[in-house]
Each structure stands twice: as C-alpha cells, then as structure tokens.
Amino acid sequence: MMRCLAVDDEKLVLDLLVDNIRQVPYLTLVKTARNAMEAIEILQNEQIDLLFLDIQMPRLSGLQFLKSVPSPPMVILVTAYDKYALEGFELNVVDYLLKPVSMERFLKACNRAYELFQLKQKTPASTAPTELPDFFVNVEYSLVKIVAADVAWVEGLKDYVKIYLSSAAKPIITRMTFKALEEKLPEPAFVRTHKSYLAAVQKITAIKRDFVMIGDVEIPVSEHCKDNLRKILNITPE
C-alpha cells in the first residue's frame, strides 16, 4: 500500500480527490491539508509515499513548497494550469494532472507511481544512493562543478558528453569521453542503458520494453544492456 497525502486549498476539489484516492485499492489516504504549511507539518510526522499536490495555493505555492522539502515523496501535481508542467517535471514529479481529472487519467497517474514504488521496494540496498564525490568538467574555458547526486542521466556524443542535471533545464556539454565520465559515475548508483547513455538508478521512474523513463524523458535501452539493467534493478525477466 502507498500512503498518501492530498493537498488542495479548495474543499470541494479536495473532497473529490479524496474520493478518487479511496477508489484505488493500493492507495491509503493518511491525511489531507488545505495549504503548504499544513502539508509540511504532516510530512514531518507521517510516512508519506505519494503526495497529490495543488499548485495555486495561498502564501506558498505547490511548486515553492516542493522546492523547500529536502527529500520529498513521489508527487503527482493536480492543477487547473498547464503552464507549470515543464517546471513540474524538472522537479521530477511522477505526473501532471489538469483539472477536472477523469478517473481514467487519475488511475493512469497512480499506476505510474505504483510502478515506481514497487521498483524502489525491489531495489536492493546496494543500489541506494552512493556518496559519490563531486567533480569538475571543462565548459567553455571554465571549470564547472558537477554534483554527482544531481546527475539524472548522461548522453555520449563522440568526444563530448551531455550531462543532464535534475536542477537545470539545459544539459552541461563538456569535451570528454563517455568512458571517462562513466568512471566518475559508476554502478550501482548509475547504470549504462545503451552504448551512449548512462542513467541514475534512483531517478528512474518507469521501465518499459526498450527504454526507461526519468520523469517524462525516454532513455533508450539496448539489447546488450538489458541483462545488466535487470540485475542492477533486481528485476526478473518476464
């Protein structure tokens, strides 16, 4: 069961959200909150696996709240505004639902969160985030610090690599070999999914036949890398 918290400042909307949550068999509603400050207090005192979060709220918006939480649970944004979708996915939310939300669309988002929840439960302790050292790369005649824990995935491009960070919209492009960067981001914290792609294990949100998802981004998985990927993620072949 996933323990849930629903946050929305509109009572009617919150009541509808609560009703939807109670219809999903693998969800259990722990509490509700009418604003971000109430939500912060609940997160400090309860174990929450999944957060349903409104964006437009008084005092502190949902996105501001999310940025302020050091280690937030999985988040599904539920809002009437589509203009925040990109920013939401940059914060690694599981899904972005626009009000009014159909039950079919709501269930699809919940299923995505449940897949990720099960993945985390199956992942062995050895693949927990490793305290990898931060490092510097050359970018346009400057040395730029890369925080290893902030790296989401890496794409190799001949003599260059693109380093995609959770905290930035654009990748950092640096001249170095893919192999050299792979040595700085080794298993089990990172796993090669393709000859030109390396993904942070803890940032993988879904696994499909020929790619893994990090947020809404598809990272290709080659046949050559599938066995090792399953091994790192502790997944039994179908």
How would you portray this structure in words?
With 238 residues, the chain is an alpha/beta fold. It folds into two domains: 2-122, Response regulator (Rossmann fold, 3-Layer(aba) Sandwich), CATH 3.40.50; 135-233, LytTr DNA-binding domain (OB fold (Dihydrolipoamide Acetyltransferase, E2P)), CATH 2.40.50.1020. The chain is 31% helix and 31% strand. The protein contains seven helices and 15 strands. It has helices at residues 11-23, 36-45, 62-68, 85-90, 103-122, 178-184, 223-233; strands spanning 2-7, 27-33, 50-53, 74-79, 95-98, 135-139, 142-146, 151-157, 160-165, 172-175, 190-194, 197-200, 206-207, 211-214, 217-220. A five-stranded parallel beta sheet has the order 2-1-3-4-5. A five-stranded antiparallel beta sheet has the order 10-9-8-12-11. Strand 9 and strand 10 (172-175) form a beta hairpin. The chain is globular. The protein starts with a strand and ends in a 5-residue tail after the last helix. The relative contact order is 0.10. The model is unreliable at 125-129 (pLDDT under 50).
Please render the helix and strand layout as text.
Layout: E1 2-7, H1 11-23, E2 27-33, H2 36-45, E3 50-53, H3 62-68, E4 74-79, H4 85-90, E5 95-98, H5 103-122, E6 135-139, E7 142-146, E8 151-157, E9 160-165, E10 172-175, H6 178-184, E11 190-194, E12 197-200, E13 206-207, E14 211-214, E15 217-220, H7 223-233
Briefly, what is this?
The protein is α/β, with parallel strands linked by helices. The protein has seven helices and 15 strands.
